[in-house]
Structures are given as C-alpha cells and as structure tokens.
Amino acid sequence: MNKRLNEAIDRLKALPDDRQTEIADLLIDVLDHEADDIILTPAQIAEIEQALSDDEPYASDAEVRAVFDRLTAGCALPSPAPRQPRAPSQPPEWRCSARHPGARPP
User: Fold this and answer.
1) Where are the domains positioned within the chain?
2) Which of 7, 19, 33, 63 has its CA 20 to 30 A from that of 95?
3) How many angstroms separate the CA atoms of 33 and 35, rounded?
C-alpha cells in the first residue's frame, strides 16, 4: 500500500462511523465502476447524430436583431464613427437609462 493511501485511511479512521461508511461506499462505488464504458442506446445515438448534422442556424438574423433591440432598449450606443479619437484600450462611451442586467451606470 502506498504512503498516500495509508494517510487517507488514517484520516478516515478518525472520522465518525457514519462518515466512514459514507466514504467507504463512495470508494467502493468508484472501484466497481472504474472499467465501465458509457453505453448509449440506439435512440440516443440517433439523437446525437441528428443534432450534429443539423445545418440550421440557432437563430435567424432577424431573431438575433429582435433580442438585441429588446435588451438594449433605452440605451444610447456609440455611433460607428466616434467624434473624438480614443485610445485603443479605452472602451466606447455609452449611456443607458434602461434598468436591465449587465447595464453599466450612466
């Protein structure tokens, strides 16, 4: 038996009986399932193959735009051409009067 396992067993012996039983059950469960492979049913395999072969986009451009518009309603986003040059590390200025998660304070 190696040193690390002896240390674990010594620590385990110091625990109350109910904790010893719980940890022993976990260890035995790990050892019993060590060599098990994951086996999928034919239906699960078909579902995975269908999902991988699906070429449809998750959302259309219009759907993405609608969500973006809804989440940014009331926000004044920067114009594409800023009025004053800014440092590359400086974020664009914007103001948001809407109260939504992730909104920065004005």
Assistant:
1) 3-32
2) 63
3) 6
Please state whether 12 falls in left (phi above 0), alpha (psi between -120 and 50) or beta.
alpha
Tell me which amino acid residue 97 is.
S
Q: Output b/e per residue, 2-14; b: 16+ Cβ within 10 A.
A: eeeeeeeeeeeee
Six-digit token string for 10: 């010594």
Over the stretch 64-98, which tens digit does the pLDDT of each residue have? 888 888 888 777 665 555 556 656 666 655 555 55
Torsion sign over Cα 53, 56, 57, 63: negative
Q: What is the pLDDT of residues 11-63, one digit of tens each?
A: 989 999 999 999 988 888 888 877 666 777 899 888 888 877 777 767 888 88
